[in-house]
Amino acid sequence: MKRPVRIAITGAAGSISHSLLFKIATGEMIGQDQPVILQLIEMPQAMEPLRGIAMELEDCAFPLLHSISLHDNFEEGVVGAHYVLLIGAKPRGPGMERSELIATNAPIFAHQGQAINKLANRDVKVLVVGNPANTNALIASRNAPDLSPAQFTALTRLDHNRTRGIMANHTGANPKDIRRVTVWGNHSSTQFPDLHHATIYGEPALPQIDQDWYRDTFIEKIQKRGSAIIDARGHSSAASAAQAIINHMHDWINGTPENDWVSMGIVSDGSYGIEKGIIYSFPVRCDYGRYQIVQGLEISEFAREKMTLSEQELLTEMETVKDLLPKETGESHRNLSVCLRSGTTLYDDGISLPKKQYLQTDRVR
Ligand code: NAX
């Protein structure tokens, strides 16, 4: 049995976490041989519901769940973390503009970036889920000068999975036979679900579907899927977001399948002409706990236009939060050639958080 790893999660009593925590504890995220320590972080007013969730986790008797600690303070909860999932964010209220949402959440992610920089494991892998995910990831990363920008990512895997799922339903193929789809850009309605390089049963996907349907219906359907789910359910995607988080982290840690790639929001190194330094969703392949952008894909005029639109949106968002982006990290974000750092050097670091400890077992020490 391996030594346990520390996973710090914000928004741990929220809807996404309610599906996610149980999947992590069964080993779906990292592996069936990897014990986990959950460091759950919430707002002070949500600590009691969080305690209830910890009780439920305990009641599942998961063999891989080494211990749980509960925190209403980010600094305390992120100590020694090998993985940090930033899910908690202020939700968009009725009539709230996207720019207001950005401004409200920005200082939280600046603060969290600083704390991760100081207190997390040096090989930490960070995934930002809370919206606006790409820009929040940028803020966190720019506020972590001692870590590599490549250690910070934003979730666009839900959009990637939606692209495959809806294509599978449309064509009758099994989702596993739909490969090499890409979601470019921002996790917003400007994202571009690209099927130009996709395959179905190993053959190019586009000739197998109606071009007008792809351009006029499919793209918008993916872009607006989040809103459609809110309209139908009255709440934003939760279980599918949890599944996407599992997929994103699993593939980052364990590698992507042969003959395929995934979409991840990562710092742009200028590939495909995208402005360096923004967090943009690219097609990536992962191996040994690292990722690299898939190079050499042909970009049509149609695709370029859509990719640029999303890039422009991210540049505008960056402008909105520029006061929270320290100048000294600008250079490291603009001059990143390959996205490599953070392998799988994971070990028990001997840190214990006794006061906040909820569940402790000694099976895997
Ligand atoms: P919920 O409102 O159910 O839960 C959020 C939880 O976060 C709450 O319990 C709240 O108390 C906590 N929280 C808020 N600020 C916090 C902070 N500073 N530190 C610790 N905890 C904090 O939202 P949920 O449905 O779980 O969604 C969470 C976030 O994910 C939202 O911002 C949502 O917009 C975003 N999403 C992002 C997706 C993506 O693909 N990137 C898809 C799903 C989702 O829409």
TrEMBL record:
Catalytic activity of the protein: (S)-malate + NAD(+) = oxaloacetate + NADH + H(+)
Record's keyword terms, sorted: NAD, Oxidoreductase, Tricarboxylic acid cycle
Binding annotation for NAD(+): G11, A12, A13, G14, S15, I16, S17, N105, Q112, V129, G130, N131
Statement: the UniProt record of this protein carries the keyword Membrane: no
PROSITE patterns to which the protein is assigned, alphabetical: MDH
CDD domains linked to this entry: MDH_chloroplast-like (cd01338)
GO biological process, one term: malate metabolic process
Gene Ontology MF terms: L-malate dehydrogenase (NAD+) activity
Family: Belongs to the LDH/MDH superfamily. MDH type 2 family.
Name of this chain's protein: Malate dehydrogenase
Source organism of the structure: Marinobacter pelagius
